[in-house]
TrEMBL record:
This is DUF2231 domain-containing protein. Residues 14-133 form the DUF2231 domain. Keywords: Membrane, Transmembrane, Transmembrane helix. Pfam families: DUF2231.
Length: 142
């Protein structure tokens, strides 16, 4: 008897979406490392670096979030719970990143330790979003 089951693999992200998703993780990680450097050296320039890195992460993450929302809406019957998880993780990452940007807008001394913790959480959420996004949004056995 012939095996009629075929395995389908996760559909890859659109190349432009993949490029946009590539921004938040390294930029939030850079902000986390800059915050850590400030917490050990108290050189104000590290918080300035973190602020710019967070702004870049919010720009790339916001565009990836918009793309994820559009893909989630138009995917119709192919929509999975993974689409929702991906969108929600990106949304929470972006919101916490925005709060982190507001915290970094304060005086450097006042931005710590909240800025460091927010950068750490945003980095972890960016990692989770990258793992979910790059692993493919559709898959299973037909």
């Amino acid at each position: 008897m012939a095996d009629t089951n075929t395995t389908t693999y996760g559909r890859a992200l659109h190349p432009l979406h993949a490029i946009l998703l590539a921004f938040p993780l390294p930029l939030f990680l850079g902000a986390l490392l800059s915050d850590w450097a400030y917490s050990t050296s108290y050189q104000v320039q590290w918080t300035n670096f973190a602020s710019w890195l967070i702004a870049g992460a919010l720009l790339g993450g916001g565009l990836a979030l918009l793309w994820a929302l559009i893909e989630w809406v138009i995917s119709g019957p192919a929509r999975t719970a993974r689409h929702a998880v991906y969108f929600l993780v990106l949304l929470v990452m972006w919101i916490l990143g925005f709060i982190n940007a507001l915290v970094h807008a304060k005086d450097a001394w006042a931005a710590m330790p909240a800025g460091l913790w927010l950068s750490a959480v945003a980095t972890v959420l960016a990692l989770v979003a990258s793992l979910v996004g790059y692993s493919g949004l559709r898959g299973g056995v037909k």
